[in-house]
Amino acid sequence: MMNADSDASPPRLFRGARVRMSVLGRERHPKYGDRQGVIVGRGSPSSWRVKFDERTTVQAIHRDYLELVAQPAAASLQVAQRRSSMGGASNP
């Protein structure tokens, strides 16, 4: 029997979102630790390109290895405004 929690999908990731490695991501890639970064684009249908803080290169990371970081209200509002000004278009 499935409960309501198992039907819930994780929050959707999007370009400009602040993310960190999930528990699964830290298990699979311990060298990344608890780093945070910003999604800068799509790597493939199942991965995102992330620019981690204090790193110069962008890394493609599987979506299951990332989780959203809570942002201050002002930062979330700015991201939402940028997304709406782009007409909701995603970056392929």
TrEMBL record:
Domain of life: Bacteria
Protein's recorded name: Uncharacterized protein
Lineage, uppermost ranks: Bacteria, Pseudomonadati, Pseudomonadota, Alphaproteobacteria, Hyphomicrobiales
